[in-house]
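Q: Hi! First time doing this. I have a protein sequence and I read that you can turn it into a structure. Is that right? Here it is:
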Amino acid sequence: MSESDERNALLYLLAGVGIGALIGAAAGMLFAPKAGSETRDELVEKVKELKAKTEQWIAEQRAKKAAVEAAEEVGA
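A: Yes, that's right. Below is the predicted 3D structure, encoded as structure tokens:
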């Protein structure tokens, strides 16, 4: 298995764990003994947090990729 395949496998594993955690958290909130408006507000807040974290992670990955490409360009 090449290094690229291992990275992809790890990425898919982490994505699967993350999605599973989100589904579990959402199910837990939906079945919790709270008022509907409280649950919806909580879900909206969690989605906003997840979106911000995802955008930050994507920006970091793009920066890393740009740094690697710049280093390769200078080294080439």
